[in-house]
Input
Amino acid sequence: MWRRAYPGRHDIWEIGQPRLDGLVRAGPDAVVRARRLYGVEPGQVTVLYSPTGREYPPQGRRGLLLDAEWLADELGPHVVVLQRHGDTYAPGSTARHPRVRDVSRHLVLEPLLLAADLLITDYSAVVCDYVLLDRPIVLHAPDWESFRRTTGVAVDLLADPPGVVVRDAAELLAVWRGGLLDGPEAAAARARLRRWCCPNEDGRAAERLVSRLFLAPELGAGQTPAS
Output
């Protein structure tokens, strides 16, 4: 896929992504610090809502984006919603709600992922980062056919989803209230996605990168220095 998208004579080093090392190696203390960073109290459940950008105005289509304030109210008083829109069409800040944090301007994603107990997204690549934490994922996909036709996708996440797929807000609430967010099938689906999209994420990608760049730059593509 990378060679098709970015053709050239460059080598591709399959070593993992150094930016994800901290996510893979994070322990309970890192999770506590991340939750404190966003004002999440002990005992609260944190939902990260992070839809992808679109090439058409989603506000003109009923139910395309979830309203973060509505989501916080419907999911209950113990839920904090972190709203992250990477879209010029996204609604404005919802910072007035006491349990909604607008984190759209937070460029570093890893603390947000660590703080979240649940990810709600659609077709965003954030899934391939969050799946490393092995926590529940919901794909809110009301416009799959339109998105695939207008924007295009490299991977059909809905063919083998790493979590529950819902088409509208009513289905999302039914899944939440029915306790259907997670289970053996969802865990197995997340494991399949990890094997496919992030097989090299073991927390040592930065180490391998430094080794290739400075200790063994003469190695060809696909080779790594001897330990």
Summary: The chain is about 35% helix and 10% strand. Residues 122 and 139 are 5 Å apart (CA to CA).
